[in-house]
Specification:
The chain is built from 16 helices and no strands. It is an all-alpha fold. It has 2 domains: 144 residues, no CATH class; 85 residues, no CATH class. The longest helix is centred in the C-terminal third of the chain and has 15 residues. The N and C termini lie far apart (55 Å).
């Protein structure tokens, strides 16, 4: 399992590691953090204290730190598990707000590390970051879902470079909603928008042609295409 280019977890700050452990893209992140940080007791301690840490990683960390292996969450009583779920649900909004504040305090390089490895909650925060490099790195996250891509394609606040990136990904632009989103986004360069017009359904084209937020050149192209199809 290769590391993503430009991402070195062995030098990531404790804060970045802590945030990643809170909302990882998947369980592989825990193994990667362990392998990259066997020399850093402070990071191993973060893994040890994290309730999400997979059991094999927990055992290895406990061995390195000469600490007792923590009881797996799966072994907790049903009552305790239910109470924990309830507590997590009640504090979700507060936790999300805290996560946002922590991420906003990070340097650009640290945000990029999170963008490449973070889970959906982290990605939803970083995709709105004012730095375009951070946004582009979110789009490189291998766990990014098609629904997330569609949301980005619809967002007129994302940088133009992000829309260009999406338009070049074949797997993404095969999805009809992504093409509609790109054509309907006023930030999408007209040279890209117009290439997708012939792929759209007439019902969507009629709606888009009336959308005054779209550049006039794109609306005119849609109008011409509609006339041709009606002949």
């Amino acid at each position: 399992m290769g590391e993503l280019i430009g991402l070195d977890l062995s030098i990531a700050s404790e804060e970045v590691i802590s945030i990643l452990l809170e909302n990882p893209a998947d369980d592989r992140v825990f193994y990667e953090i362990l392998e990259a940080n066997r020399h850093r007791p402070e990071v191993l301690r973060l893994l040890y204290e994290c309730r999400r840490t997979p059991e094999p990683v927990m055992k290895e960390v406990a061995s390195i730190l000469s600490l007792p292996v923590k009881v797996s969450r799966e072994l907790a009583t049903e009552e305790a598990a239910e109470a924990e779920v309830e507590a997590e649900t009640e504090s979700q909004e507060e936790r999300t707000k805290g996560l946002l504040q922590r991420i906003q305090r990070l340097r650009v390089g640290e945000k990029i590390q999170l963008a490449l490895k973070g889970g959906k909650e982290i990605r939803s925060i970083l995709i709105r970051d004012p730095n375009k490099e951070v946004v582009l790195k979110v789009l490189e996250n291998p766990k990014l879902t098609e629904s997330e891509v569609e949301m980005v394609a619809r967002n007129p606040s994302v940088p133009e470079e992000a829309l260009r990136y999406i338009s070049k990904k074949r797997d993404w632009i095969r999805r009809y909603p992504v093409k509609v989103a790109l054509v309907g986004n006023p930030k999408t360069p007209p040279g890209i928008s117009t290439t997708f017009i012939s792929h759209l359904r007439m019902t969507d084209l009629v709606i888009l042609e009336k959308n005054k937020n779209i550049p006039e050149v794109v609306r005119s192209a849609i109008k011409r295409y509609i006339k041709i199809k009606k002949r």
